[in-house]
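Input/output pair, single chain:
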Amino acid sequence: MESYDFVVIGGGSAGYFAAATAAHLGLKSICIEGAEELGGLCILRGCMPSKTFIESANRFLTLRRAEEFGLSAGHLAFDAAAIIRRKRKLIGGFAEYRAQQLNSGLFRLARGRGAFVDPFHVKVSFRDGREETIEGKTFLISTGSVLNTVEVPGLDNVGFLHSDVALDTERWPRSIIILGGGAIALEFAHFYNAFGSTVTILQRSGQIIKEADRDIATALTDAFQNRGIKIICGTKLKAAELSESGKLIRYEKDGVEHVLEADEIFFCAGTQACGRRGWSNGSRSRRRQGRNGNG
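Output:
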């Protein structure tokens, strides 16, 4: 049985840098990653692809304001397929570089899924069917996150976009209802609005970016509303249904039920940690204690 000083489960950005740092400090380290593609959430389906979308949106907004500066940009148009191609090209380069880093030999990369046998042993199920149990002194669980469970009656049947899907689709809604008012929701609201979609944000809490100070949320709300984005806070989502011309959301605000209709619904109500079921506490790491309890 192979023994390691530091075992990382998850080879995304956090997992890679943790394993690399530990290896540079002289620890015998291993990173376990079972996904089909190397790169992790940030590179493949999160921060980086969303920023390519935002950059396209920002440049298009600048073109739309050309006349304010005495300029003529001619007929304005965009190519959704070209935006996606640019995103795929950039993300492909980032992912390839991360794969090179993971395979550099600085630490061992195990291409499989890890599951704890006990607090100090992990069984790795490799992609080729092999299994191996390894021993570790210190563990870091860095398995990323998944979308929160959909809690809106009927939404699964109606169908909806979410961040994983929207970052790789050429579908372009003329109007869209975004369920959620967090950072990711606002990124997509900015993006769709820039390219002409009618955007409505439905937020359960009393403000968008509920963790932010009130003055920050107010400034963001004013900026978005000045661009024509409708923001409705303090809502309770009741149901999603198909309509003759698209999809609709029934929601309640101040005790009164309302209906919104659009071409598409975007579910963006946050994420939750992968594999959190069964954790005995909030710790993301386990450190093996010596027999005398001093570690």
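The first helix runs from residue 13 to 24. The helical segments are 13-24, 40-45, 47-64, 80-102, 155-158, 163-166, 183-194, 214-226.
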